[in-house]
Every structure is written in structure tokens, then in C-alpha cells.
Amino acid sequence: MAESESLHLSIGVLGISGGSQSHNVLFGSLCLTVSALWCGSGLVHILAGENIINSSRGLRDAMVPGLAAFTLALLAICIVAILCHEVVLSFIALSICLACAHQIAGLADSAFGQAATAVCYLMVCFVGAYFGSGRLLSYITQRKIQLPGTFNKDSVKPIQIQEVNDIVTVGVIMNLLSASVLACPLLGVVPKLFSGHVPWLWTAGVFQLGVCVKSYRSMDTLAATFYGFTSILRFTEGYTALVVHFTNQVPYSPVPFPVVFSVLFFILALFNLQDGFVNTIYQLFFVAYCIAIASEPQSFFQRGTQGVQAAIFVASAFVLFITLYNMASSNKIPTGAGFLKNLLARSNRFVLQTNSKDLHAPYLGYSKYADAEVLGHGCSVLAAFSITASLSSGNPLAILILPWAVVSGGVLHLICGSVAFARGKTLESSTFILYGIMWTVWGLTRFGGLYGDVRGLHLAVGIISFMLFNVLVTAGALFLNKAWFIYTFTFQLILISFLLDAVGALPYGYDIGVTIILGLVSFYMFLASIFNCTFKSPQMPFGDPFIKLSGFGGGKDSCPHLPARKSSSVQQIAEIMKNGGICGMPTDTVYVLVAACNRPQAVEKAYKVKKQAKERPMSLWISSIKQLEPVRDQISPLLWDFMEAAWPSSISLVIARAPWMEFFGLGDSSKYIGTPQSIAIRNPDCTVATHLINAVGPIAVTSANPTGEADTTHHNQVYAKLGDKVDGVLCDGPSPENIASTVVDCTKIENGQIGFFRVGLIPKSKVLQIFEGIQKKHMHGQMNAAFETDVADPHRHLTVSQTNLSETQTDSGISQNSPANSQSSLDLSQHEEEEEEDESL
């Protein structure tokens, strides 16, 4: 039976995918709730199968608290689904809710049996099959056939997933689960907290870590921090039950850590006032919970702590219903969400941050995460104060330190480091990851029973290696700001205390002193980070960097960084370019470095800034084909019509070089654009680029990165990579696309043939479709009226450079170029290398 029941775990893991990818808050909450239910129950049955839970009574005590929590959670989802007219979801939630209730009854009294539970799950199978088939049929028929009940009348409305962080409902349900497990011993439902409850508690912890990460994806820093903190509690509660199981001794809980934890929860609750009174009051329950842990030495096994968890159980049920209803329904239950904003509107001293896309704009590269420094510094505070307790007894497991240090200092630091890395914050991510590894290794070694009483050089060598890495981090912090330098330097003092302890030379009180200093420094950074992400003004200072260099962070005063969405910014950059400057600019692909063609010295400067080799020429961009009107008589009718049909887009056309290029005033700098035989020209599908080219005329373009480096995908990277040589940057955040343009060879278009140097953002089939349409028009005599007189004149002069590219003929006359050992083959490779370098094309 244990093996079959453990399949719940596998099905529960699969449920995570459906819930995490859903844009429907009720469907997502239902999937993830059922996933957690089956993960937890599956793990409990695995423990029963391994005889860790060795009686039917033990199985009952292990299952009932978790099932009770999910019964209430599913009932709340069912009620909200009914109020929102989600018939199928309400039926599924109610069926699983009744299944859990019947399972509790069957565990309490074997005479009740499990038939009712099986019937409820069978109903879920039938309804789920009907619902899934209806959705699949609707998708296949493109909504022409919809089974009754599978779509409600509002299902076709656009889903606004950016306005709310709908994953928080799962975090509340996990708090409900933990509270049920700890409150049941107080209410006499189960005798005590024991190892059979660990699967429920650690399932809640894992899911809350997922809620934390998903909240960063939803740009909700405060929710991510809160559920990161609560996950620490979940893992600690489960760890305590395991220690009792293996040692038959309840671990003693030191006072400093939960007291500091209560302070962090209190600060978090205050800043959550901007989301309303409900979240603030709810988080104050966790302040009381931490105080209860600090006041009772056996913490989770004593009635005071369990009583607070009973209150959290009731509060979580109410918060779950309110949150679900407000997210799923057009009607809202008042929560006082606008109170703080209205209060501060009367004062000019405090100005709240707006939820614009610039609030969590990444420093470098593309990111879909909010800033994680609030949680990172909060965990540094917790990790520092967790090791202030001394190990007076010989058994390190007798004092509750290990989960505080490893989960807060290790696991969450690694998550914060990963988020910081995604945001392009290289130094911060390296710091959090390094410290996360250090806290994990030291916590497991010193407080997990691996350290013992042995002191020696082998352990000291490992600590010294961490110290050397931290020296590099501290040196890097000199270029960031004063607060980060103090933070990294203080951690170096912590590492010294670890080293002295390893060799048995630790002075009395030194370790306590430096951990308190680190805790206070981290607390300031936590407070400053949460304050600055909440208020636009005033801002708590981090201090200027001790050392400033050119590049990111040191040159925005000398190099204007202007928002691309403002017309005045585009005009200012245009003036810089008219005066011979070169600038960074966003496009429909990646950022590029541009110079005005009528300023030859600027074109040469841009070429030299790039440090390009001779085989890496620049390209020519225009804002409209109308800019080529004065030289239209030098362009073939077929090519002209192809340009009109293909542009504006992410298509670059490689055409034969001709005298018309002199029209743009390039002079001697024309040698830097294209090759002696051909030139790449493009009309980008980008509003900012179009306005700028309209203001300055055609521009010479190259990618905004030194030759051989990766493409520039954020405006901060332009100055970071090219330094003071750039005269201005138009800023528009992350690049919309990281895929290069499609490069089409039109040097033999007069023969009815085009080739492809590279297939990029625009598919090959689309380009061929456009070209075939133009060919058909010319075959039927339908061409641009402006060329009719030229075609009638047999002596019309047209300069088109012929190439000797080897081609593979096709029935339609369209070919794919292949390199050959000729000058034209070199021409092709030059353009291919140019396009690989210049992703902007």
C-alpha cells in the first residue's frame, strides 16, 4: 500500500507545472494546493513504508493535521470559485475537499472505510477528463467548439498578469498547513509533534521558497522577502521534529535569533502597509510567533508557541479567502490598500515609488526579477545572530542553531545571489553566492556534529581559501559603494574568527563581537534596501564608491544617459551626433553604436572605438526608403520594390556598392562602411531609431561592444563596455530581442536570385514570399511608375557590382549562396562576420 500511495508524490510534482504556468489565479492555486497535498501525503506514506511511522495510529497522527489544513484551503478555493462562477474548478475543489474530509474520518475510525474517499477522487477524474477534453477540443478547433462549463463568459478577456502577485495565495496555504501541524498537539488532535509531521512542514518550506522566487518574477519584493522568511520557520520546525526522533531530546532554542527575527518581521509588516492593513496585521502574527519562540526554550513543543500557531491558522484562513476573492473577482473586499498612499500624499517629505518598469530595471542584461537585496541582507542579519549562541554542551544538536544558519545564511543567500546574477549585478551576486556557500559549509560543520572537538590545519586551509575569495570581493566593493565595502570587510572579520576557532586560538568574546558588528551592518543595509525600494524620496544612503573608474557607475555625468521614450532626449542625442559625436541607441534587436553619415570624422571615430578588423565593416541605416529618393535612378526597379516591400523590418539587404553612397557626404570614411564590392543597408522597425535618423539623416551603425565580445542588451552595458569614447546613450532598458536580423544577399537580384547570409528574426520563408510577390508583379509588367521611363530607355546607366558567388539553382530561380574561393566569396564572409558581430542588423 505504501508504494501505491507514494505515487501521490510523483503526481504532486507534476501538478507544480500546471499551477506555476497558469494565468488563472483560481486554477493555479488549485493545482499547486493539490500538488502540495499529494507531495506531503506521498512522503508520509513513504515514511510509513520504511517503518519510520510504524503503526496505524502513527499514520493517523501524521496525516490528520495536513489533511485538515488542505480541507479548509480547498473549501476556501471552492467558495471563491462559486462566487466567480467557475463551475468546473469549484466542483473539483469541493470533491478533493470532501475526499480529504472522508480520509480524516477513515483514519479516525477504521469502520468508516475509504470508499467515500475513492468516490470523490473518481468524480474528480471524470470531471477533470471532461474539463481537459473540452479545453483541448477548444484549442484544436480554435474556440469553434466549446463544451459547456469548460469556459466561462469572461474567459476570453485579456488576462492582466502583471498587476497582482497571484502566487501569494499558495504561500498563505503553506502557512495554514504549518499552523495546523503545530496547533493540533495543543488541541489534542494528535499527542505531540513528531517525525511524521516533517513531510508536511518541509513541503510547506519548499513551496514557500518557490513562492519567494515566483514573487521576484512578479516584481513583488516585500512578498518575496516575507515568504523567504517563513520558509526558514518551516524548515526549522521540521528539523526540530527530526532531532527529537533521532536523539530523543528536544533542542534548546537560543534567545537572540528569534528576537532579531521578530524585529525583521515587524519592519516588514510596517512597510507592507502600502498593500493594506490585512497583510500588515497578518504579518504581525509572525512577530508574536517569533517572540513566543524566544520566550520558551523548547519552542515548537510548548503550548505558548502552539497557541500562536492556532491563531495564525485562523488568520491564514481569513487572509486566504480575502486574497483569493480580491484577485479572482471584479468586486473587492476592502483591505485599506490606498491608506498609506493617501496619507503620504499630504506630505512632501515622503514620496512612494511608482510601479513602473524602471523600478526594478536590471543593471546589465535582461531580467524578469525584482531586486533581492532586501532578503539577502535580512538573511545576513539572521545568520550572524544565529551563531552568537555558544555550544556549551558536547552535543551540537542540542541547541537550535543549524537550521537558522544553514537555511537563512546558506539556502536563501544562494537564491538571492541567483536573482542578483539574473539582474546583471555581478559583484552582489558573487558576494551572496560566496557567503551562502560559506554559511552552509560552516553551519553543517560546526553545528551539525561534523566538527566535533577536532581542530586542525585541514579545516583552516578551507577557511583561508574563502578568505582569499572574500579579499577579491572586498576589493570589488571599493568600486560599488561604502556600505557594501563595510559589509564585505566585516564578513572578513567573521572568517578570521572561524579560522581562529579552527586552530583553537580564538580569543574570548571575539567571535561574538564580530558577529554582532556584521549583524548591525547587515541590518542597516536591510533597512536601507527596503526603505529605498518603497520610497522614491528620501533615500537612505549607501555611500559613494571609494574608487571611481570610467564605465558603469562612473561616467553618467560626462556621458548623457537619456530616456528614449522622450522626444527631447532623441533631439538632444541628435544634436550630439550633428556635432560629430557617437552614441548608443536601442533598436528592434540589440543596442548599437551610431554616427551620422554626413559627419565623416564621427564615422571614423565609431569604427576605431570598436577596434574592428578590416573584415568587420559598418552598415548603413535609413529611416525610410524616401531618403534614397535622390539616388533612385542608380537603383534597379526590382531592388527598389523589394526594399519597399521588405522594410521597415529586421531585414538587412546586402546590395552592390555604387556611386550613390557619395550622396550622403561620407567622403573618405565611406571605406569603413561595407566592403569594396557591397554594402549592408537596413530600415529598422524601431520608433526611436526612426526618429533619430529623421533628425540626423542616414547613419553608420555597428554593434555597441568591442569586437569579439557579446552583444549589448541593456543601455548600462554601452558605457560599461565602451567608456568615455561614447558621447551619449539613449536608454530603453533591456533589448526586446536577442536574435539577430535576417541578412539577404541582393547582389544578383537582377538575375532573379537572392541568397541568405543568415536567417535571423525574420524567417526565410517570409523573405522568399515577399520576393516572389515582387517578381510576379514585374513579370506582369506591374512595377513602380517612377521607373517606366528608365526601362524604356535602353541606354539607362545602372552601376551594379557583379559577384562570382557559386549558387545552387532552384526551379523558382531563388538560390542559397555558398562560399567560394573568390573575391566575392570573401565579400560574403565579410558580411557574414559583420552581421555576427553586429546583432543590431
TrEMBL record:
Biased composition (Acidic residues): 832-841
Residues covered by the YrdC-like domain: 567-762
Keywords: Cytoplasm, Membrane, Transferase, Transmembrane, Transmembrane helix
Source superkingdom: Eukaryota
Entry's EC annotation: 2.7.7.87
Enzyme class at the top of the EC tree: transferase
Membrane-traversing stretches: 25-47, 62-82, 87-105, 111-133, 167-188, 252-270, 277-295, 307-325, 397-420, 432-451, 457-480, 485-506, 512-531
Pfam families (UniProt xref): Sua5_yciO_yrdC
Main location: cytoplasm
Signal sequence residues: none
Region annotated Disordered, chain positions: 803-841
Subcellular location(s) per record: Cytoplasm
GO molecular function: double-stranded RNA binding; L-threonylcarbamoyladenylate synthase; tRNA binding
GO cellular component, one term: cytoplasm
Biological processes, Gene Ontology terms: regulation of translational fidelity
Reaction(s) this enzyme catalyzes, per UniProt: L-threonine + hydrogencarbonate + ATP = L-threonylcarbamoyladenylate + diphosphate + H2O
Compositional bias ranges of the Polar residues kind: 803-821
Family to which the UniProt record says this protein belongs: Belongs to the SUA5 family.
Name of the featured protein: Threonylcarbamoyl-AMP synthase
